[in-house]
């Protein structure tokens, strides 16, 4: 479990988040990464505990709170967000492939005239590698994760040495963000929250196989937190070091391939970046496949994985159509914060406060049973989710939250409270 969650976060997307967080400055970014990530992974530990206790995947658990048919809502959202994360990591890895082709064959880079062919080939190559990684099942996923962590550890140490050969820690700490590019504290907290909450809905998919409660909770929490802080800090320090040494800061150049190239890390670094994409996407594809299998109960997981791998390849082309990976990435994170926060709150509140940690597992697949509600839908959960998703937009525009704690966590607290109140009133009526 520790290796799974370290491997899930020791990837290109986490590195990129660290680079984007450089817009807050080193000290502020570090505080936000630690605190916002820790809160999100408390939720991961709670969902992990539910999975351990029930032996059911996260989307299976959602049937108890949303209803058997109502659980299609979180399943669709989970499906889309993990497709999105697969595409994010694929795009970053494809960028590494294009850099490899540039270094080895002299092909133009993405953004240069003729650079499109390198990116297209990169996307095709990465998609084939992802399909190969999931074709052999869980054993191949474990092998990729363990090999990936070893190589990533070596790579991180190597990159850290290179960075501090060029700049000192004092220079990185004292670097000032250009005023026009500076990010507000609340916006940065929301960015980190959305990034980390994306993993929470996959927690039970893995913790249900744990033999010990500690593996499902504290070990999962520690692994995810170590992974995100480890790699995000590398992205943060690397991006700032380049800004210090070059005198310019551009958040659009925070992707691992650009940084590795500018640091002169060479072909081996690009190969490690490609491998870390496979490590993270093994988890992404598994979670997306599980969500799809929950919607179509007769669909085997093997075929669900092939479907999500194909769809993720298509979604990877969106940043190329928009012309900006950063713009597509930011919009994607806003989507995650809006739709996932309320779902996570509802699942946690339902199990720990409404059901008092007592789910009837057999009823999770029983039409007309305890979790059938009204024609298979618990409208209390659906209405709460709609209010939570809408409330996110309202809270996001509040100046006080923009400059302090962001909108994501207050929205989750309010969503959880609303759901509990509705369910409490329903119980009183009975």
UniProtKB/TrEMBL annotation:
It is a multi-pass membrane protein. Pfam families: Transp_cyt_pur. It comes from the Bacteria. Keywords: Membrane, Transmembrane, Transmembrane helix. GO terms for molecular function: cytosine transmembrane transporter activity. It is found in: Membrane. The chain crosses the membrane at residues 12-33, 39-62, 82-102, 114-135, 147-167, 187-207, 219-243, 263-283, 303-329, 335-355, 376-395, 401-422. InterPro entries: CodB, Pur-cyt_permease. GO terms for cellular component: plasma membrane. Belongs to the purine-cytosine permease (2.A.39) family. This is Purine-cytosine permease.
